[in-house]
Amino acid sequence: MKYLKSFLAVLLLCSLWNLRAKAQDKVYMPFFETINMNHEYQYSVSKLFKSYLEDENRFSLILPSKSDSLYYSEPFETTKAKAASYGAKYFIIGELNRIGEMVMVSVALYNTADGTKVWNDKLKAKNPDDLDPIMQRIAKNIGTPNKAANDGDIYSVTEYETRELKKTTTSDYFGLAIGGVVLFTSIPAKPLTGADLLWVYDAKNILMEINAQGYWASHISLYDLSLETYYPFKHSSNTPFIGGGLGISDINDNNYYSFTNTSDHQGYGLMVLAGGGYIFNRTSSTELRLSGNAFVCAYTVNSENPFGAMLKIEFLFHR
Description:
By secondary structure, this protein is an alpha+beta fold. The protein is built from 5 helices and 14 strands. The chain folds into 2 domains: 23-161, TolB, N-terminal domain (Rossmann fold), CATH 3.40.50.10070; 171-318, Beta Barrel (Porin). The longest helix is centred in the N-terminal third of the chain and has 21 residues, at 2-22. The protein is rod-shaped and about 90 Å long.
């Protein structure tokens, strides 16, 4: 009798499991429509969504074959008719719309019998890297009274929603800097002030820039065109960076200018720079940087090699 009771208990559990599996509603969904995105996302995101949706054990998702509707958006009535032919109680229409780097994800669940909308939601992804947690959120909440946007699941936080946004794409900027230069030489001069024009290419792991600058004070002038490379410590929106570069510069000490010894008080040639700084809002279209460089010149002015330091505030704008 003891073994009989155990057997009946196991049989009951198996029956309940089968009933639960059979209770899953069939849902038909064509591949996600992609707007301004690589069409390869249609198939990969749809398969990812199917995996997450069926993990919830509420729906059994039917996708078309890859060759049937890839790169093709089904009309609403066609989707509704296909859902009915598969015996699906519901059908889903999804869309991925990319604007710049941001991806808008829209998903709606419809009743096959009359085509009425049962559930819908929209989420924003900072970039395509966010699509995985977004698909997980939508799959968890679709067909329930809840919205995916209100899901507080800490394991599915998208990059768009985090405080610490990350630099995930390359970009280039044009900018303007203002700052000052101090020369540590015997040349009698106050600190020089001036401005820079710069172009910066941000390749995520490295920053490359071309910098044209001019600084002046009473009788001293410094001009420089440099190529500089910097390494950010992190991919986050705010990060320190370090590096250096080489430039062609000209320093003129006009206080000692004469027709006989001009060459003694003016020099031009190679300048070596090294330094770093801090970036603010690196993931934004407008970026602020505080930077400083030490420099030394490979030529002489007044019989010595000029060296000193630059401090700058840089304003960069996405091209």
